[in-house]
């Protein structure tokens, strides 16, 4: 049952007719809203507010319950490999082989500790980013203004708003004085929404409901009053917040690992059963046969694989933190390397979230780029054209409500309307306006109102001169003008056709265009007579845009080179979105998909449209979610970026949700897998690269583990059914798998990237933990190692060597095989001598330490006695070393053969042909 239904039932039980869930508040007149809410301009009384609080509950969002620590720890024991080892450990206890059982459970316990610690760290990292949204608010109750905790608000409360306030609940505005609200978190619009009290159409989109103020948004200027119409989970923010608590499916890596573990477990169990039955029948010793089967299971089971995965991904978490990315979910580290599509929000991610004036025109002249223009020098220049440009910038800054405040760095911070801030910033940075200009007293002003389409200010200079400044919609400002500046800065009669041509040229680039005009008045003129401006001189146009972030275009080109497509998904206007898309080098920006189009589309048509465009504009949260699901239905691994509540459902549904840490909302961060602390798209490309590095490291570790496990399984299996003495004891296999191999396979997880990770396409969704190349190499190397171990063991037994010595030689040969396989496993394609051993110092040191530990164990009598080992002579070590080197003939030889064939155009990788050519062609098109 939903919270709304519960509240309605509570309301009915209280005898109050307060079913508000189906009410379209934005379409009602103010009087109807007051009547429906049983409210007035004196606010609610204490008794009524308490009664409604009991009915509707606290004004707070539902929070996800933190996973208990004990449950997080127990989850580390899940998985087929762990289950098989646990069963083996339990049965070994019943057989009273306590040392073997203790070793098995020690491995499992250490794996659980590593996984638990890393997941706990990831949770704590993101907790540090969350803050309370609105702790208190001002309301009118019983005719008095009171400040109360925001969670005590109820429907019908009259809330007071002013600049800087965060809206505490969904409000129907009943008073709005120059009220502007930043609703980017809900709508994605970079420009503040201008508010009034007039009702709108019942079907109006969220961003067009100008008489509403929504919970979580911020008042940027003006003031107003609003009646609470929804609280808690019934607000727009709350309804979206509820969607983010849906459980997320497995990541691609989790599915691959589960499939691999299950396959290994089934194969090993079947072979173990065969060995047990065969040994029991041939030798008539069921206990001995079972120990042989346990030995095979322990030898073949890559129990260190979960540890390697956890360590490698935890290392990725640490590396990504250096690139300003906090990872909440460990598997997301690798999933980033698998993505094929990035659905990115525009504002604040691809762009700077700072409206900036980019072009001027004088009158109806050609647009002039602002970049590189010294308007400070222009203000005192004898050049009429440059002086005209300075006058244009000054006029825009002097009819302006932007607020300037010094910051700690000695600079200036701006607040207010995005357009006003852009024009003020331009005038300040270029020196077109002086402190004296800004201090000139305002004798009359008209703030911007949607119905007026302009703002006006009259200022008096120190010499007593009055100057009237007007800015607004170009058509409205032209209607007030009689003359204009020509491109040379001379005053000429107004040419509306020329101005319209300039207006259209700037608008076609996605710029927000503002017209600016002025008129010098006589010092004795009555300012009241100029309330309706006329006979102005049209100075020109200012075109502004939220510009792309530095480096984003290059990052998108890198994504293209890596086979990743970037799609812009935004609530902004299609023309603006397309203009930004072209600047960023996105493909197919001419036919932007819009939310209104999607209403009429089937899923099949939507998927087809998404293949034709890289821009989705004017989309709602539901539209974003549908786009993500459509791309996933096409087989894509989708990453989504966002910062607002409107992005949360898509963030949750995506394979990887990437939230903004600075500008992002708590709801967005709650829904995400990764949080960017610098809100920069460029960081995503670095995260993708690290994801691919991590998967390559995991793949190398898995190849190392499985190849040595395959060798051990073949050797032990053949040994048991050959009626020979037991090749390896279970404890010896645990010794190899954990003490020696365990150090090396973890060290392989630290393998750094080669720097070319973004030059190849993502791996195929059907590709498993190992590629076909590695599976083939694994089979050959595993068979060769098993054969060498069995032959050497048989020769030593036939020569009369005691069993402990023969086992120790076989075990040492396996250790040396592992040493050389670990070095080869660093790269799937590069030869050992092409790799700098110091690039992974940990592996180099760990491999020699593993050899040292193994040698020390056989020469320390107490340890050797427990492990059933005996000391070897120098000649026996040399024999094992020479035979161990032979595995490189197969692993490195395979690399050389494939490289030789690749140079001759023969593809042995299994990747689709022509893909890289297509990628290179896309990059070339973007650069050109």
UniProtKB/TrEMBL annotation:
Keywords of the record: ATP-binding, Membrane, Nucleotide-binding, Translocase, Transmembrane, Transmembrane helix
Topology relative to the membrane: Multi-pass membrane protein
Protein name, as recorded: HAD-IC family P-type ATPase
Record has Nucleotide-binding as a keyword: yes
Pfam family, any one: Cation_ATPase_N
Start and end residues of each Cation-transporting P-type ATPase N-terminal domain: 24-97
Database matches in InterPro entries: ATPase_P-typ_cation-transptr_C, ATPase_P-typ_cation-transptr_N, ATPase_P-typ_cyto_dom_N, ATPase_P-typ_P_site, ATPase_P-typ_TM_dom_sf, ATPase_P-typ_transduc_dom_A_sf, ATPase_P-type_domA, HAD-like_sf
Domain of life: Bacteria
Protein location: Cell membrane
SUPFAM superfamilies the record matches: Calcium ATPase, transduction domain A, Calcium ATPase, transmembrane domain M, HAD-like, Metal cation-transporting ATPase, ATP-binding domain N
Catalysis performed (reactions): ATP + H2O = ADP + phosphate + H(+)
PROSITE patterns: ATPASE_E1_E2
The keyword Nuclease belongs to this UniProt entry's keyword annotation: no
Stretches that traverse the bilayer: 77-95, 101-117, 262-282, 288-315, 702-722, 774-797, 803-821, 842-862, 874-891
